[in-house]
């Protein structure tokens, strides 16, 4: 559930993803949701921090987001975590990551005839964006299965090749139903949609491969962190409080974010969103039986929320991106030192202060420590 931003005048939601532009890696428009940002708007949490927020409106592309951000028309953006790496460290966009939005919350949905990863050999899988955690985790899984990712071109694929294409999330379920692709890996609720429509099943959840990975992050103009720190702190405070509310009110959040709510924040039904936010114990048991979940001891939610941008994650993400197939210029990745990259990309001071006001990381069920060990177990 990913993607929103703020303007100087108001909160502007961006239920959108991906568009091709000369300055961006190749991609196309699509749709997604940023649950904590929408909840913060819906429950008046921005206003409580003294920030006027209008009803979220649609922007149609990543290109528009970045262009508006660079032009100063937009001050806070919700981006795919690897895209933030590309924007700041590859294209020198003056942004700073100030928080995470959600952890986990993505999966690999496949056609009914795909029983295991090896069955994807010679077939095509869709990703939402080259610089996405979905592309990174997919390639971890393919390597484990002895398969080689290739950028999909015309012509037949070899039996050990998997063709990758960038596709808008909203186009993924229809493409799977039409057997134009064998699977797709993306943020919720598009994975749950494949199940609800009966067109596919979950082969693996990404959070069961890279434990509690960040999918999307919240980024701000660097100058605003320096010139108006109170405003920046208020935005982060609201996001942290929204995430706490989401964790404690999952079924209500599904209704608030659904198309049945008067705000119509998303085009999804409350039933589909509840499948993601508040699944029942029987669903977890079924995923363990099918192998979609392999790490029962982790006891992690299908999607969870916590705002702290652990530096070890950013460092490991940079390492993984160095060996991940992406289309377009990627030379900047080879020059990155993971620790230096994390320090340049992230400003965690506002979120540390926001966390201190609500009980710290233990309020999110986490140890009281700003370091963690990354766990990747395909």
| Number of separate strands | 12
- Head-to-tail CA distance between termini: 23 Å
- Sheet with most strands: 6 strands, antiparallel
The strand order across the widest sheet is 2-1-3-11-4-12
> Per CATH, what is the topology of the largest domain?
D-Maltodextrin-Binding Protein, domain 2
Helix share bin: 25-40%
Give your account of this protein's structure.
The protein is of the alpha+beta class. It has two domains: 4-104 and 213-259 and 305-364, Periplasmic binding protein-like II (D-Maltodextrin-Binding Protein, domain 2, 3-Layer(aba) Sandwich); 106-208, Periplasmic binding protein-like II (D-Maltodextrin-Binding Protein, domain 2). 37% of the residues lie in helices and 17% in strands. The chain contains 16 helices and twelve strands. It has helices at 35-42, 45-48, 62-70, 81-90, 133-144, 172-177, 190-197, 222-227, 229-248, 250-257, 270-277, 281-290, 311-322, 331-334, 338-345, 349-356, and strands at 4-7, 11-13, 74-80, 95-104, 106-110, 123-127, 148-151, 161-166, 183-187, 201-205, 214-221, 303-304. A six-stranded antiparallel beta sheet has the order 2-1-3-11-4-12, sandwiched between helices. Strands 7-8-6-9-5-10 form a six-stranded mixed beta sheet, with helices on both faces. Strand 1 (4-7) and strand 2 (11-13) form a beta hairpin. The longest helix has 20 residues, at 229-248. 54% of the residues are buried.
Summarize the structure in short.
The chain is an alpha+beta fold and 378 residues long. The chain contains 16 helices and 12 strands.
